[in-house]
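Exercise: predict the fold of this chain.
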Amino acid sequence: MNNIVKYIIWFVCLILLQEFLFNNIQFVSFLSPYVYIFFILILPLNMHPSYIMLVAFVLGLSVDVFSAGIIGAHAAACTLIAYCRNFVIRISIPKGEYENLSAVTALQIKLRSFTLYAFILVFLHHSALFLLEIFSFQNLIVTLIRIIVSSILSTIFIILIKLLFAGKRET
């Protein structure tokens, strides 16, 4: 299958999954997993960073349109992690694994490296998103707990999606 078609299918499916399934999953009334950012994680490594940021912005804006939150919050958070993505790849994936990678989706990296990579970007995304949503430091402890627990929950779902749909398994 053509790579562009594959990524378009991922884009649409992740937005639909987020809107119709994951936005309706509520843990402790305010924790919701955000798995649509998996798309940013799996973009090709040779894709120009400005294109990654543009695609991430469109992804976030698409989620903003469907969600009842602040318009632009998801777009800003996605753009932030797209900007940080290459740096996070370099610090979370060992040099021996990183040199021969073409894409993170190929499961050419070990699950431990992918988990670290995913968690760092998910944590950055959730930090930006939740801080933009409350736009205050008034309930900082509750917000920090929400960021940490939601990041763990989202990372677990992202890893499950990767293991189920992203190719042969390598642990």
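Check your answer against the key: The chain has one domain: 3-23+35-165.
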